[in-house]
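Researcher: Go.
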Amino acid sequence: MLEPGNNDELPPIPGKRYFTIGEVSDLCAVKPHVLRYWEQEFPQLKPVKRRGNRRYYQRQDVLIIRQIRSLLYEDGFTIGGARQRLMGEGAKSDLSQSQQIIKQLRVELEQVLKILRR
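Model: Structure:
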């Protein structure tokens, strides 16, 4: 579920601990105001807030955002339907997220290998 259609065209997630809202916007092809709205609608999405209410997202948050994006934009779910789908997945989403992380690491390692072969 985390890797449907358009998510393959999204840029790889860098190996950073925290991402700003602008970085997440670029990584997920979603505007910042949409991300702020989704925070209100999806309880799973809770970025760390620091000074001045600046949001800092972790890799887990980026994966959830990509999943929400896929449900809404590609699968045609409503906000309520996507929320229910995410709530009902529990253990399945942990496995899917692990698979997404492994896929992402593989892509990054292949890029490093290409650089080393030059």
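Model: The longest helix spans residues 79-117.
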